[in-house]
Specification:
The complex is a heterotrimer of chains A (120), B (673) and C (186). With 673 residues, chain B is α+β, with helices and mostly antiparallel strands. Chain B is 42% helix and 22% strand. In chain B, the strands form five sheets. Chain B has a six-stranded mixed beta sheet with strand order 14-18-19-17-16-15. In chain B, strands 6-8-9-11-10 form a five-stranded mixed beta sheet. Chain C has one domain: CheA-289, Domain 4 (OB fold (Dihydrolipoamide Acetyltransferase, E2P), Beta Barrel). Chain C has helices at 8-21, 80-83, 161-164, 167-185; strands at residues 26-33, 36-41, 45-50, 64-70, 73-79, 96-104, 107-115, 117-124, 145-151, 154-159. In chain C, the strands form two sheets. A five-stranded mixed beta sheet of chain C has the order 8-1-2-10-9, with helices on one face. Chain C has a five-stranded mixed beta sheet with strand order 3-6-7-5-4. Classes of the chains: A alpha/beta (120), B alpha+beta (673), C alpha+beta (186).
């Protein structure tokens, strides 16, 4: 069981990801944007961060940079949720320090497979 | 594990519809030409979310359509495309179209594909016209899933993996990669220590090792490359067929492991499920739901906590009560009273929503109609965070639409006719709380009411008496009279037949009042006053014979005792009381309602002066009882509407009390005299 | 005519037991009005209550006695004698209100009706026992009577409650009556 931080401004996405991960037995923290996520991260460590890229207040790219600056999140796997089929967004995330990405749309099975891959 | 994503579809619809509202508001606020980057970004984000969600839930038409919108918005955001009026109008239309698509999907009805195709075509042409100079956008997004894959090599792969020093800084872990490779076949890992520095120079966070990996199995090169996808730029990588050949395992045994096929299977299963999910979502939409801020729920939980404390206090008191502790009992009962009141108030607050949900439709409406009419109009909205009961919100929408349309159509003049005023007219929408009621104002700086024309009509209709002087209020009041509209011609903007009388009736149906103030040439302002909630009202209990009635406190002006010499009997007008310089009609409630054993001598009872629709009347009752909050029950559910009665309630002694409908009573009184 | 009047409590328990006992046959709750016996479909009956004072409703036909509080719902109470145009009587200890569910265009309505007293539950095992109502000779307008059943003690008139207690029809009837009265005086 791992603790996973989910960041997405879309409620349906959050709900789906949260539900899927909880069903798989993980502990889940949920944030609606980068600012909220960063606040959560400052108070608690997590084993994995899954974040949307396009968000109000603080986008995913900035969040990744901020997280990597926190000692507790220096090596934490961070995955971006991206709809971009081009490589731009993936690479922008990577440049900011993301571990990898999950391409939207995805189904729960694919999400779990990727999460399990990262958590080992 | 099978997870049913259908349960999140409802949330997707809700957030998408909200997203569309955000897009619409954003588009309307976009100044043409000058691109407001933050604004466009907000619009883009909403489109982007809808696209992502619809993809996840399998609404392909929605995804495809939003994709084009998103591409267009992205160009605007990147400054590669100008924010023209044409583009904005097309996007606005697309927002409408998308809203209809979502509704269709939600209700499982057919999407108007002709309209979708037409709009999509227009958006694409806009893009293409723009693209003649810049490169074509990648609009398909499908990465060679149908392209034939190279056959797997006979034996396996020799992989040379040299991570850059900072590979682990991105949270990646070589061990994770090896673990994944091991699921694809037989893996042999040979580390290469050649880069390892002396211990003193070693940075613990860097990756000095490199590996040579031997993967024996039938995995294709693409699958193996995919394992390294996240670290592609963080390492030097070579993947080559193994030199020493081993016979491949039977093809069928490993084919199912290929991600491509596995996904296909899952998706087909998802497709089957989707139909029933959508139906489920459709029925769920019928049951009304309400979104409540967590703070409101917390407040209620806190209050329930207090109530429980009080209850246990009372129980403890009751165990062996003696008169010495009567003070304690009083104290606890007071507390119970307070708790109940607070709880009631907070529970009602759960039903309160900001009025912005009603106001938000107006920017678009004003934009569209003013364009159609060739008028320049600016809409100023304030107080949109004012909270109002959900049931009132549902009832207030149509009357407000009518009022704003009236202002657009009859109020604001075409630019050339605005005389000394600025060419751009202003319509204001404002909401605020005052003394337990909600006020909503719709104002404009247009023509205002034509007092003389109204007066003439009033005379023609016999509503006014020739030669008598009337105040502005009395004249303006006439526009609420059925059949008295001053508009010279019926336009297709302010619908036919439905007049201000209907607006007033709608407002009265929810227990509200409506007033108009106007100055010819300078504009009008209509003020609507509504109760905070429909379910509860502050009432004055009055007794008439054996019966007890409730008068809404909001409509009471004052209560007076009557002296016989102040009463006049006017032919054709009934009894009137000379009161504060005016003649106040007296309505004997016991006559009106046929109550028995009531006080009939005016000097022995009381006159409750009430006001509605700008008219006052004195209700004659036996006496006043207490004031209390009344929860309103429907009389119509099991019975029918009763003239002069707004509803019923259960009184403290369990009997039914009738709540008076003041404007109804005044109407009845007017009709009778 | 020999009829017995059972006390309320006994009848209420009887009611519940009987309803669950026979699902097959038809069951009618019988009651007395001006010496005549009437029956209504037991499935329509919600409960039977003793008479309590009600709140008068203005401008309603005389047979609408008022509204009462039935566990928080506002329920109209109809005097069946007045509804049938019979002589009204003082309410006594045995005067009861039968609370019934009535079908209407607005959905189910709950209405109370005042009768002289309830007597018993009538079991009809065979629908053929129910005869068509006569065209004449009853105290009650035959349009409200759905059938007749002969029992040892005499005859029971089965009532169409949906029709009889239709609020819309009541007010329509009243309007006609008022018009007739005006006509007569004119």
């Amino acid at each position: 069981m791992a603790t996973i931080l989910i960041v997405d401004d879309s409620a349906s996405m959050r709900q789906m990801v949260e539900f899927t991960l909880k069903e798989a037995g993980h502990q889940v923290m949920v944030a609606e944007d980068g600012v909220m996520a960063l606040n959560l991260a400052k108070g608690a460590t997590s084993d994995l961060v899954i974040t949307d890229v396009n968000m109000p207040n603080m986008d995913g790219i900035t969040l990744i940079r901020e997280l990597r600056a926190l000692p507790a999140y220096k090596f934490t796997p961070i995955l971006t949720l991206t709809t971009e089929s081009t490589t731009d967004k993936k690479m922008e995330g990577k440049d900011a320090g993301a571990t990898g990405w999950i391409v939207k749309p995805f189904n729960p099975e694919k999400l779990l497979a990727t999460v399990n891959k990262v958590l080992g | 594990m099978a997870i049913d994503i259908g349960q999140f579809v409802q949330t997707f619809f809700e957030e998408s519809l909200e997203g569309l509202d955000i897009m619409e508001a954003g588009l309307l606020a976009l100044p043409p030409g000058a691109a407001d980057l933050e604004q466009i970004n907000t619009i883009f984000r909403a489109a982007h979310s809808i696209k992502g969600g619809s993809g996840t839930f399998g609404f392909k038409e929605v995804t495809d359509f939003t994709h084009v919108m998103e591409t267009l918005l992205d160009k605007m955001r990147e400054g590669q495309m100008a924010v023209t009026g044409e583009a904005v109008n097309n996007l606005l239309e697309s927002v409408d179209c998308l809203r209809e698509m979502l509704m269709a999907v939600r209700q499982n009805t057919d999407i108007d594909s002709a309209r979708v195709g037409n709009l999509q075509g227009r958006l694409t042409r806009l893009l293409e016209r723009n693209n003649t100079t810049s490169r074509t956008a990648d609009a398909t997004g499908n990465r060679g899933s149908t392209a034939p894959q190279p056959p797997p090599p006979p034996g396996g792969w020799l992989i040379n993996f040299r991570p850059h020093l900072d590979l682990m800084h991105s949270g990646n872990d070589p061990v994770r990669i090896f673990r994944e490779l091991a699921t694809l076949g037989d893996l042999t890992v040979r580390p290469d220590f050649s880069r390892l520095p002396r211990l003193a120079e070693m940075q613990p966070e860097d990756c000095y090792l490199a590996w040579e990996l031997e993967l024996r199995g039938a995995a294709s090169q693409e699958v193996v490359t995919e394992v390294f996808a996240w670290v592609e730029d963080d390492c030097d990588l070579s993947i080559e067929p193994l030199a020493d050949t081993v016979a491949p395992p039977p093809a069928g045994a490993t084919a199912a492991e290929e991600p491509g096929q596995g996904e296909l299977l899952l998706e087909r299963r998802g497709g089957d499920r989707r139909k029933s999910d959508r139906r489920g979502a459709g029925t769920a939409a019928d049951s009304a739901s309400i979104r409540v801020g967590i703070d409101k729920v917390d407040a209620v939980i806190n209050l329930v906590g207090e109530l429980v404390t009080t209850q246990s206090m009372l129980s403890a008191l009751g165990v062996d009560f003696d008169m010495d502790r009567i003070d304690k009992l009083h104290e606890a009962l007071d507390q119970l009273d307070r708790n109940t009141r607070d709880l009631q108030e907070h529970v009602m607050r759960i039903r309160m929503l900001p009025i912005s949900s009603v106001f938000s439709r107006f920017p678009r409406m004003v934009h569209d109609i003013s364009e159609k009419l060739g008028k320049l109009v600016e809409l100023k909205i304030s107080g949109e965070q004012t909270e109002i009961d959900k049931t009132v919100i549902e009832k207030i929408g149509d009357p407000l639409v009518h009022l704003v349309r009236n202002s657009l159509d009859h109020g604001i003049e075409p630019p050339a006719e605005r005389g000394g005023k600025p060419a751009t007219g202003v319509i204001t929408l404002n909401a605020y709380h005052k003394s337990g009621s909600i006020f909503i104002e719709v104002g404009d700086d247009g023509r205002g009411l034509d007092r003389d024309a109204l007066r003439r009509k009033g005379l023609d209709a016999g509503l006014l008496r020739p030669g008598e002087e009337y105040s502005d209020e009395q004249i303006h009041e006439l526009i609420f009279h059925p059949g008295l509209s001053t508009a010279k011609q019926i336009s297709d903007v302010s619908g036919r037949g439905v007049g201000m009388d209907v607006v007033r009736r709608n407002i009265q149906d929810v227990g509200g009042r409506i007033q108009i103030a106007s100055q010819s040439g300078w504009g009008s302002k209509i003020t609507i006053c509504l109760p905070l909630t429909l379910a509860i009202l502050d009432g004055q209990l009055v007794s008439v014979g054996h019966d007890c009635y409730i008068i809404p406190l909001l409509s009471i002006v004052e209560s007076v005792q009557i002296r016989a010499e102040a009463i006049n009997r006017v032919a054709g007008k009934g009894e009137v009381l000379r009161f504060r310089g005016q003649h106040l009609p007296i309505l004997r409630l016991y006559e009106q309602f046929g109550a028995e054993n009531a006080v009939t001598n005016l000097e022995n009872g009381l006159l409750v002066v009430v006001e509605a629709d700008g008219r006052q009347v004195g209700l004659f009752v036996d006496d006043l009882q207490g004031q209390q909050q009344i929860s309103i029950k429907s009389l119509e559910k099991n019975f029918r509407r009763v003239a002069g009665v707004a509803g019923a309630t259960i009184l403290g002694d369990g009997r039914v009390g009738l709540i008076l409908d003041i404007s109804g009573l005044i109407r009845v009184n007017n009709a009778a005299t | 005519m020999a009829t017995k009047t059972t006390d309320l409590a006994t009848l209420s328990t009887h009611l519940k037991r009987e309803v669950t006992a026979t699902a097959e046959g038809l069951q009618y709750l019988t009651f007395i009005l001006a010496g005549e016996s009437y029956g209504i479909d037991i499935l329509k009956v919600q409960e039977i209550r003793g008479w309590v004072a009600v709140t008068k409703v203005p401008n309603a036909p005389s047979f609408v006695r008022g509204v009462m509080n039935l566990r928080g719902a506002i329920v109209p109470v109809i005097d069946l004698r007045l509804r049938f145009g019979l002589e009204s009587v003082e309410y006594t200890k045995t005067t009861v209100v039968i609370v019934v569910t009535v079908r209407s265009e607005q959905g189910g309505r709950i209405v109370g009706m005042v009768v002289d007293g309830v007597s018993d539950v009538l079991n009809i095992n065979n629908a053929s026992e129910i005869k068509d109502p006569p065209d004449f000779g009853t105290a009650v307008n035959t349009e409200f009577i759905s059938g007749l059943v002969t029992i040892e003690a005499g005859m029971v008139m089965l009532l169409d409650v949906d029709r009889l207690l239709s609020i819309e029809e009541m007010f329509a009837v009243e309007a006609v009556r008022t018009a007739d009265a005006l006509h007569a005086t004119a």
